[in-house]
Amino acid sequence: MPTAKKRTRTYDPAKIRTAVHAQFGHVRQAVRTLTPEQLQAPTRLGEWTVRDLVAHLGMTLRAATRLLGRPAPAGPQAALLDWPFAIAAEAPDIAGYARRLAEEHPDLDAYLAATEERFTADLAAHPGTRLLDTSAGPLTLDDYLVTRTVELIVHTDDLNAAVPGLDVPFDKQAFAACTRLLADALAAKAPGGATEVRIPPYAVVQCVEGPRHTRGTPPNVVETDPLTWIRLATGRLEWKDAVEAAKVSASGERADLSGLLPLLA
Predict the structure, then answer these.
(1) Which residue ranges form the domains of the chain, and what is each CATH number?
(2) Helix or strand (DSSP H, E) at 195
């Protein structure tokens, strides 16, 4: 598992909490409009239906509640950038749990409402410095909430892909945090300064071993939009398909990132 050697980017805890609530609110509003037929529709996540996906979106907040219910770990504190590389092992258990939740909660609106109410109460009861025993190691509550923006944005996009015309909006702050965390994860996975990855307006990172440029135009440049980047980083879009569709501009012999993606399997 790559370890973040660089200084982790900082996030404003108050803005992140607001962003998580805002994005979850967008999801709740959209779910209220779904028909029984739409809830049974397939998604791009294997055997998951839309109902399963909605249950999993609720798990995004329920996970924080679950971890806050455990004793605080002794430490040492893990880095936020350890999280993207630790979650792949959880995928099989998550899928099964999402299906069980979907079966147990036929009223999805009530399920999401209760989830958000408990989450809000938990945040009010615990400081942001409270350590959580996550799969990446002990993370502060503030850091863990940044990871919730990734889960919410990625799965909101999955929901939009599964239900044509739904168009659940992305909260700007949550979208920015998701983009930046995944960009920084790339830099942690492939440290170096040979390639500059630009994801305007939210992130620019240096990565890949090789000659480091000091001024002027870098010899190896990758540029894409935030949603394309998020889809590449999470395996929703293949590198070659993004390049062929002109969703990614890549110039230079070290600008091919296909061997480094996805970051989240």
Answers:
(1) 13-175 (1.20.120.450), 190-260 (3.30.1050.40)
(2) strand 195-199
